[in-house]
C-alpha cells in the first residue's frame, strides 16, 4: 500500500491527523457524521485510498468507547433490519474499490452525502417525522431501512463515510439523542470490525497503517470524553442541525479537488 510512515510525515501533517483522530472520538460520542471532516483530513494528508485503511482502526476504537458509553440505549430491532442491506452495500463497495481511483471514490461519496442531506431536510420540512423508532416495521419503513442500509454499507466500505448516511436514516426514523447514539454505536462497531478482512485483502491495512494508528489512537480517547461532556449540553434541535451540517460539510469537502 502506498501510505506514509511516521518518518515521512511532517509535524504539521501529524498535527492535522491528530486533530482528525480527536474528531473521530468526538463524533462517536456526540455528533455522529462529524467524522466526515476527519475523512477529508486523512485523504488530504495521505493517499486517498490508503487513508481509509489508516482511519478504520481509529474508527473502531471510537466505536468501542461509544458502545461503553451508550450501550443501554441501542434499539436492536432497527439494527437487525439494517444489517442484511448493509452487508450487500459492503460487497458492492468492495467491488467498486477494485477498479475505482481516488477521484471516483471522492466524487461518488460526496455526491451521495449531499443528496441524502437534501432529502432529509426536505422530508423534515414537508411533514413531522414519526417519533417512534418502531415505525421501521411498516412496509415504507422497511424499504427506507434497506435503501439507507445499502448506501451506508457502500459508503462505509469505500471511504469510511457511512456515518452521515446512517445518521440521516436514524434522524428520519425519529430517534432522540441517546437512542440515536446507542444504536449507531453498536451499528458501526459491528460493521467496521466486519470490514477489516475486506480492507486487509485490498491492501489498505498493513504494517505502515497500523504504525500510524498506534501513534494516533491516543487522540481518539480525549475526543470521546469531550463528546460525552458536550452531548448533554446540546438540545435535540441543535443536535439534529449539527448532524446535517456535518454531513453537508463532509460532502462538499469530498467534491472539492
Structure summary:
The chain is mainly α and 257 residues long. Helices cover 77% and strands 0% of the residues.
Describe the structure.
It is found in: Cell membrane. Pfam families: TauE. It is a multi-pass membrane protein. The chain crosses the membrane at residues 49-70, 82-99, 105-122, 178-198, 210-231. InterPro entries: TM_pro_TauE-like (IPR002781), TSUP (IPR052017). By secondary structure, this protein is mainly α. The protein is 77% helix and 0% strand. Helix 1 packs parallel to helix 3. The longest helix has 25 residues, at 102-126. The two termini are 22 Å apart. The model has no long low-confidence stretch (mean pLDDT 80).
Sheet with the most strands, sense and barrel status: none
Number of strands: 0
- Class per helix and strand makeup: mainly alpha
Taken as a percent bin, the fraction of beta residues is under 5%
What's the overall average pLDDT, rounded? 80
* Sequence of secondary-structure elements: HHHHHHHHHHH
Shape: globular
The total count of helices amounts to: 11
Distance between the termini: 22 Å
Helix content: over 70%
Query: Any low-confidence stretches, pLDDT <50, length ≥5?
Result: none
- The value of Rg in angstroms is 17 Å
InterPro entries: TM_pro_TauE-like (IPR002781), TSUP (IPR052017)
Subcellular location: Cell membrane
Pfam family, one: TauE
Membrane topology: Multi-pass membrane protein
For this entry, give a set of tags.
membrane; transmembrane; single chain; transmembrane helix; Probable membrane transporter protein; 257 residues; transport; mainly alpha
Amino acid at each position: 500500500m502506498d501510505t506514509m510512515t511516521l518518518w515521512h510525515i511532517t509535524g504539521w501533517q501529524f498535527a492535522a491527523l491528530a486533530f482528525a483522530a480527536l474528531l473521530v472520538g468526538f463524533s462517536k460520542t456526540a455528533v455522529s457524521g462529524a467524522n466526515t471532516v476527519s475523512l477529508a483530513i486523512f485523504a488530504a494528508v495521505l493517499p486517498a485510498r490508503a487513508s481509509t485503511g489508516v482511519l478504520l482502526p481509529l474508527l473502531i476504537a471510537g466505536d468501542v468507547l461509544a458502545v461503553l458509553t451508550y450501550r443501554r440505549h441501542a434499539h436492536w430491532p432497527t439494527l437487525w433490519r439494517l444489517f442484511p442491506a448493509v452487508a450487500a452495500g459492503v460487497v458492492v463497495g468492495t467491488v467498486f474499490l477494485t477498479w475505482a481511483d481516488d477521484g471516483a471514490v471522492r466524487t461518488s461519496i460526496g455526491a451521495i452525502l449531499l443528496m441524502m442531506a437534501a432529502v432529509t431536510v426536505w422530508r423534515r420540512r414537508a411533514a413531522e417525522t414519526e417519533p417512534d423508532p418502531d415505525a421501521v416495521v411498516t412496509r415504507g419503513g422497511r424499504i427506507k431501512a434497506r435503501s439507507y442500509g445499502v448506501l451506508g454499507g457502500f459508503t462505509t466500505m469505500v471511504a469510511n463515510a457511512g456515518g452521515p448516511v446512517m445518521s440521516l436514516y436514524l434522524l428520519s426514523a425519529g430517534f432522540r439523542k441517546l437512542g440515536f447514539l446507542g444504536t449507531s454505536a453498536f451499528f458501526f462497531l459491528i460493521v467496521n470490525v466486519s470490514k477489516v478482512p475486506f480492507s486487509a485483502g485490498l491492501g489498505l491495512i498493513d504494517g505502515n497503517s497500523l504504525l500510524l494508528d498506534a501513534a494516533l489512537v491516543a487522540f481518539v480517547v480525549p475526543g470521546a470524553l469531550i463528546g460525552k461532556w458536550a452531548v448533554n449540553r446540546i438540545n435535540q434541535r441543535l443536535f439534529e442541525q449539527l448532524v446535517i451540517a456535518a454531513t453537508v460539510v463532509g460532502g462538499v469537502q469530498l467534491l472539492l479537488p
